[in-house]
Amino acid sequence: MTSNLRSISLNFGIPLSTLKLNAKILRKLGLIEFDGGPVLRRVKLTSFGKWIVEVLKKDLA
After folding, report:
1. What is the mean pLDDT of the chain?
2. What is the tens place of the pLDDT at every residue in 23-40?
3. Dist. CA 37–CA 11, nearest whole Å
4. What is the dotted CATH code of the domain comprising 2-60?
5. Residue 44 Ramachandran class (φ > 0 left, ψ -120 to 50 alpha, else beta)
6. What pairs with residue 35 in β-bridges?
7. Most buried of 14, 32, 38, 47, CB within 10 angstroms?
């Protein structure tokens, strides 16, 4: 997870601490989850997270 956040931080100029806090909140809300073993962990949207994205897309259209 941290390597993903580091990459985002470098590419978009967002502090790593901000990204970690937001990832923790999204996980706590059940919008994202970590997939994979202890070494290589991928982040993915949960079904609830996907639903939220669809609702937001409709609101922005």
Report:
1. 89
2. 999 999 999 998 776 666
3. 26
4. 1.10.10.10
5. beta
6. 42
7. 32
